[in-house]
Amino acid sequence: MRKTGSLVVLLLTSMSLQAKDKPAYERGELVQMDSAACGYAEKDGKTLAGEIFGTEGQHKKTQETLCQEYVLRSQRITYRIRPKDDKHPSLLPIGETAVFRIHKDKLLLRVPETDGKEREYIVLSMTPRTDVAENQAATAHANR
């Protein structure tokens, strides 16, 4: 009885001490940055007195807001991504290599040449790279 108890404790301890695997990162190149319309910012002209007395000043300033969209080209797929944090997006260097991973519904990206922080991005589109498939087919055909 004592042996089985110690065996169970030993197994549970060893299972809890196992290290988690580090997340696998893919490499990609930041090819392009565009500014795309992502909504409108409205500034109301209402005042406190206008609210109280019912004489609202209907002065609304509407300004189109622009968001950064990046093209990230990996070995097999081209991603169009947008920062998840619209209020404080960081500017990424174009032409640099980035490492990324996809976790649940977001793309987590790090650029080692900058601060190396992992930031969240929304994937807008994914397109398979046709130039890679054509090069692989041509190489396979030449090797025959």
Kindly state the percentage of residues in helix.
25-40%
| Structure annotation, total helices | 3
> Could you say which overall geometry the principal axes of the C-alpha atoms support?
flat
> What number is the mean pLDDT?
79
Rounded Rg: 26 Å
Measured between the Cα atoms of the first and last residue, the distance is 67 Å
The unreliable regions are none
Strands in their spatial order, largest beta sheet? 1-2-3-6-5-4
Order of helices and strands: HEHEEEEEH
How would you portray this structure in words?
By secondary structure, this protein is α+β, with helices and mostly antiparallel strands. The protein has three helices and six strands; from the N terminus they run αβαβββββα. The protein has helices at residues 2-17, 48-53, 130-143, and strands at 26-44, 60-74, 77-83, 97-103, 106-110, 119-128. A six-stranded antiparallel barrel has the order 1-2-3-6-5-4. It is flat. The mean pLDDT is 79.
Question: How would you summarize this macromolecular structure in one to three sentences?
Answer:
This protein is α+β, with helices and mostly antiparallel strands.
Descriptors for this entry?
single chain, 144 residues, alpha+beta, 6-stranded antiparallel beta barrel, 25% helix, flat
Set out the fold topology:
Layout: H1 2-17, E1 26-44, H2 48-53, E2 60-74, E3 77-83, E4 97-103, E5 106-110, E6 119-128, H3 130-143
Antiparallel strand pairs: 1-2, 1-4, 2-3, 3-6, 4-5, 5-6
